[in-house]
């Protein structure tokens, strides 16, 4: 603890600091224990989550998906679950079977146009984005092992708030109460592709454990339209698995220890034979949660990820780039304390640390000769140390909240080297280290006018560092070369919103939110010439719009619907002036989703989801259009005997044509009609 802040930020031994953080917090449980009569044992309750939401959580635009909604996905993939929430989007429309993993950024509020995530995605409190690219490893986040998902739109100022410029997506693992002691699924579709998952969740004394594995594989569907196929064209084949183990144990009446391990591997083939990609990773975390009078949450984590990819020429069908490996490491931790300072107040005081390190190793090849032309290596390190404080004050039916966050960010060790095939060094760039302090704030209020009406308002700021991919790695998607930019500035968000929740009758909730968000210094791929783009900061992306939600339950029927209408525009000047007033790339004006469910008897479940995504543009200059599309999905579960059910799932039931990429008429397509059938086993 004698080390200076500068030494901490430069230290490569991040996990050691995490251990120190946890050790410092260990004396807290004793202080948190409530008084009890002599000889009377503490009642022990194990929850397996972090600290509960604060009273002012409803002041922000928040949506919660419980276990039933998570399990109702027709594809069985988490990105499909999240797509039911208005405003959620990936960089492209492809799912985690047919997208390049490096394109899987998660964003809310129509602030997209970038493959890096502008939303903070947490799994049991741990940031899961790839440390180098910023993409989300969706195939590793199996819905079968989740118990709850909470999406909060707008800038975040709490734990790991740096990076949450469009919102926060919190994934929470399930427990024996939500998952049951054993669940299993095995399905096959009409193309012979398979999905299999197994989860066991036994009670162990007063704690519990959850062990889960998922395995998907298949030859895939055609992403290339029939009129554009060549002898080198192939289906989007895929094979992925993920495994997770989580244990939760009480240390005393108010304190529990949570330990988690996750590992995954994902292999895909995109468009042409030999165009293979592979992403893999491992993650471990340790969390100590105390729920006494002095509540606390202490977390430490470490993760390693890798990405490899081969690019095939669309003209010669030879290998043009071999991204041999992109190893990256992320580590960090947080401490949050909730002291009982005043009546009717909930105060949060905390600190968090995130470090991301990575490097790419890639080899370009000539499309004409097939010979290697160079060797490239690039990488660096990004660090963020944050301090935050927030207070919620409840005054009758009114709750006020205000929070502030200060971040010490650092970008260092950046480099890009290229060596010609002859062995001569042609480029050796070492970029200057940069660092600074950034302050952000958020505040809001929620007024419960009556049992049926709540009114809320909020304002916030936020920021995101550019990823190492944006800073240092150029890439080619023929015929476009996109250059990196080591001089990129941090993105900064300013936003405000107001909302209304109505409960006109039992079981029905209606919400409406109006928002105005401005992302300054937004990073975009800016066209410099017909074949060249560069990552640059534009003046701002401004998104204004409405988000509507409806959720209801009437006897055996249920409805969950959402709609997002957004007017998003780019403010640009100077070299990017051609973008001024245009809609950001990959951003639709309208997106809507609705799921109608019916449970006619115990164990039965029938649901249908209709989803619409409006027209959007592939590129920044609005040259290439991705047409609007409406899809229909369905899920049917029929009990065959106690604990065993027939499971049928239909994706894109009407076989709508989903255009996921359009570059000068070169088109990729999303999932066609896909019918799954199999068995589901669930013990209670």
TrEMBL record:
Gene Ontology molecular function: siderophore uptake transmembrane transporter activity
Single Gene Ontology BP annotation: siderophore transmembrane transport
GO CC terms in record: cell outer membrane
Keyword check for Cytoplasm: no
Residues covered by the TonB-dependent receptor-like beta-barrel domain: 227-653
Key words, A-Z: Cell outer membrane, Membrane, Receptor, Signal, TonB box, Transmembrane, Transmembrane beta strand, Transport
Membrane topology label: Multi-pass membrane protein
Superkingdom of the organism of origin: Bacteria
Protein name: Outer membrane receptor protein involved in Fe transport
